Every structure is written in C-alpha cells, then in structure tokens.
Fold this sequence. Notes:
Elements: H1 10-18, H2 27-47, E1 57-61, E2 67-69, H3 70-86, E3 89-94, E4 101-102, H4 106-109, E5 113-121, E6 132-140, E7 161-169, E8 173-178, E9 183-189, E10 194-199, E11 210-212, H5 223-233, E12 244-245, H6 251-261, E13 263-267, H7 280-293, E14 297-299, E15 320-323, H8 325-337
Parallel strand pairs: 3-5, 11-12, 11-13
Antiparallel strand pairs: 1-2, 3-4, 5-6, 6-7, 7-8, 8-9, 9-10, 13-15, 14-15
Residues 66, 95, 118, 121-123, 214, 249-251, 277 line the site of 2,5-anhydro-1,6-di-O-phosphono-D-glucitol (AHG).
Amino acid sequence: MPTKYQPITLNEVIIQEQSAFPYAKGELSRLLSHIGIAAKIVHREVNKAGLVDILGAAGSTNIQGEGQQKLDVFANEQFIAAMKSSGIVCGIASEEDDEIVIFDDELSLDGKYVVCFDPLDGSSNIDVNVSVGTIFSIYRRITPVGLKADISDFMQEGTKQAAAGYIIYGSSTMMVYTTGLGTTGFTLDPSIGEFCLSNKFMKTPENGKLYSINEGNYIKFPMGVKKYIKYCQEHDPDTNRPYSSRYIGSLVADFHRNLLKGGIFIYPRTNGNPNGKLRLLYECNPVAFLAEQAGGLATDGNGTRILEIQPTSLHQRVPLFTGSRKMVEKAEEFMRTFPDECCE
Ligand code: AHG
Ligand code: MN
Ligand code: MN
C-alpha cells in the first residue's frame, strides 16, 4: 500500500500562526493566502515561458531604465490584482511602477496593510530557463484607516515589517516567509496545487563555504570587498577555505541556496554606483528579515543593519551583505580594515 501523503498546507500554518497574535483578525493571514494564489498563477506562466509567445521585451522601460520583460509585466499585474481584491491592502509599491499605487475603493481604504514587491526578480534569467522569484514585504499602514494611503506608509524601517517573503520559481516552486516567528518554507505540490510545509524553523548555518558576488565588477569594488574575496579564495583547511563561488544573478535564487547551505551574498557599492544595485524596499528589507529570522545577518557592509535603514525614496538602492552570521561579520571586518575612497 502506498504511504499516506498528508501534507500540511500554507493556509493551515498561517491559521496556526495567527493564534500567536491574539489581537489579529486574520487579515495578515488572508493577505498571505492571496499572495500564495498570485504566486501559483505566476508559477504557471513562468513554467510555460518557453512554450508560448511571452518571451522578449515588452517594449517599455521602468524607472531604473531597465528593459522590462513580458513576464515582469504579467507578474506585476497579477500581484497588484491579488492585493487589490484582498480588500486588506490600501496601497502597493512595485519595482515596475514609478510611483506607489493607491487603492481607493471603499473596501481597500479600510485596508490596514501596504505591500512592497519585486514581482519578478532575476527576470533576465527567464529566457535561459534559470530560477527567478517574487519578493514581498508587508507593513501596517501609518496613515489612518479609511483615508487614502500615502508615501509615508512606505517609508518605514525594515524592523517594522509585519511579514516578508519570497517565492522561488525553480526546479520546484517554493514560498519562504516570516511573520517574525522564524522563517518557514513551503514547496508547491503541482499535483494538488498547494504550497506544502517543507522547511520548518529554517536555520542558516552560522558559517558556510559559498560566496556569491558578481566578480565581473571586481575592479570597481571597495578595497574591503576585494580583500575579502581573496580571503575566500585562500587555502586554509582550519576555516574550510577556499570557499566555492556561486552566482546565479537572481537574488532570490542566490539567497535561497545560501540560506539552506550556508554562505554569503554580497552586492556592494561600486565605483559609479555608491549604493550598489539592489533596492531597499522590495529586495533588501524582505531578504534581511528572512535572514535574521533564520539566524543570519544582513548589513550594508559598513556596520549598519539593513532593517534599521530609514528609507527616503521608493526605489532607493543599498549595498547588501547577507547570509551566514560569521561570514557577514568577517566581510564587515575586512570593510573596516581596508577603508578606501571609492565611490565618490
Ligand atoms: P530584477 O530582475 O528584479 O531587476 O533583479 C535583478 C537583480 C537581482 O536579482 C540580482 O541579484 C542582481 O540584479 C544581479 O545583478 P548583476 O547582473 O549586476 O550581478
Ligand atoms: Mn529584483
Ligand atoms: Mn524585478
């Protein structure tokens, strides 16, 4: 007789977690369920990307001047629709929209939450069948319920996140999220169309053997990063070096692998880009929340915790050093030891 398969689904875990917040009315739980549904729809489209005529640039350009792929647009519309129809969200910020999108229908005006997201992360990897993701970050609004949301609702420190997570569309599709009670992972079982609990209380190793950085930018890196990369490459059996270099070019995929295996991901400032490339609100903050909840760290490389950076603009960029605690601490030590005048 086949073994009985009794998965614990995302919705079940969300409901269980809700009991830890006695004053919660289940709205955050519902919101996470809506994100799960949008994720399944994007999963379906990503999986047939090679089959249908959905590849190629959509012809428009986003605020950062990057060409948009059609699936970016599709995922963006899908997540916006899911947030709007939830009735719990009063506004969103997306990588693909220059300004915040405010929901001003009667139901949404009473929504307590705002959501920041990167609808499709690593989208340059779609054409070549490599993992991509969606990243989200949820805040309680600051403006009074019943009024229109405004930019102040989005300019909150990462420490204020009510929940955050990502979906990775990889060899399996997974959702990893936190509400501040640890980091939990779910794997989509396509045969039943449910996210099933697969990774409870995720803990990232405090040390790892992987370093992830775009070494093509080496000559533009701060001296501390250059020296840290050499440290990673040196032979020292006592500290398990040399480490292996792994870089996919999808933050979600690189972060996810390092979270499970132990490692460090660095996107530093470079000559010409003093704040690096990654966006604080919908890339760095959610990833930082997940990293910390799994026992890891996330800093800007110069001693500042990502979650404590006060945002000043919607598409703000920030350097990111994240992953295994001891590795981030070591990289920070190199940044302190080798300061330079890079990045005027
Ligand atoms: P997006 O596809 O949302 O624009 O994000 C791409 C990001 C991130 O996923 C990745 O870590 C980084 O860009 C890679 O940048 P480089 O090509 O400069 O290494
Ligand atoms: Mn991205
Ligand atoms: Mn994106």
